[in-house]
């Protein structure tokens, strides 16, 4: 079973002029223990180049590496898994394509979470907890109540996502999350490693409540 605490996702617009691999390495050094390549703007060739570079990085640190949306790219770079949206390839079809690799899927309501679990997802994303500008087509925030609902009803690992910052993560953890994900707060930070360390500290100190 895949498990992790701090899920770091790439965000192409948050670190202008900085090398993607360096930024993600800083996140890993701070305690991020799963990495997702998510890129909505690069060309296919750039995507492949970046996805391969992150594969090398995540292998160096022995942590799971997930590619967003694109099953073919995930297979091509031998990622450990794929992350699907509700509008992407159905889980059963993805499972046929990726075999035993990790399949994650974003969920916004308990019915989606239950279906994901039934269909064999390895983990789910739960969110957006708060409003976020990072995802252009994000649905309305689902709030902390969804986190509690998922914590109480779903057995596979779930990760809270969407607008999560150091300033609000305590209440996300108290609502029932023991894994969190942040894009802008991590990769947009002037101190990526320190930000991740601070997330990990909070997860450790609050995390025993579950
Ligand atoms: N899925 C739901 S919200 C979101 C994604 C990819 C964006 C999260 O980004 P941020 O910057 O942590 O709000
Ligand atoms: Mg998607």
TrEMBL record:
GO terms for cellular component: cytoplasm. Mg(2+) binds at residues 69, 88. Its EC number is 2.5.1.3. 4-amino-2-methyl-5-(diphosphooxymethyl)pyrimidine binds at residues 36-40, 68, 106, 135. GO terms for molecular function: magnesium ion binding; thiamine-phosphate diphosphorylase activity. The keyword Magnesium applies. It is an enzyme of class 2 (transferase). Binds 1 Mg(2+) ion per subunit. Keywords: Magnesium, Metal-binding, Thiamine biosynthesis, Transferase. Condenses 4-methyl-5-(beta-hydroxyethyl)thiazole monophosphate (THZ-P) and 2-methyl-4-amino-5-hydroxymethyl pyrimidine pyrophosphate (HMP-PP) to form thiamine monophosphate (TMP). This is Thiamine-phosphate synthase. It comes from Paenibacillus campinasensis. The gene is thiE.
């Amino acid at each position: 079973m895949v498990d992790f605490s701090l899920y770091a996702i790439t965000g192409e617009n948050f670190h202008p002029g900085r090398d993607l691999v360096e930024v993600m390495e800083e996140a890993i050094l701070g305690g991020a223990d799963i990495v997702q390549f998510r890129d909505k703007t690069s060309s296919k060739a750039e995507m492949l180049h970046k996805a391969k570079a992150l594969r090398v990085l995540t292998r160096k640190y022995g942590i799971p590496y997930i590619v967003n949306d694109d099953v073919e790219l995930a297979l091509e770079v031998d990622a450990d898994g794929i992350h699907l949206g509700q509008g992407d390839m159905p889980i059963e079809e993805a499972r046929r394509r990726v075999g035993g690799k990790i399949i994650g899927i974003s969920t916004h309501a308990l019915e989606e979470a239950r279906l994901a679990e039934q269909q064999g997802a390895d983990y789910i994303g739960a969110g957006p907890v708060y409003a976020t500008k990072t995802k252009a087509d994000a649905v309305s925030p689902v709030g902390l109540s969804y986190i509690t609902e998922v914590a109480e009803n779903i057995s596979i690992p779930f990760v809270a996502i969407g607008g999560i910052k150091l300033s609000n993560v305590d209440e996300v953890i108290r609502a029932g999350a023991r894994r969190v994900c942040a894009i802008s707060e991590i990769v947009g930070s002037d101190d990526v490693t320190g930000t991740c360390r601070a997330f990990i500290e909070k997860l450790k100190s609050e995390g025993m409540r579950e």
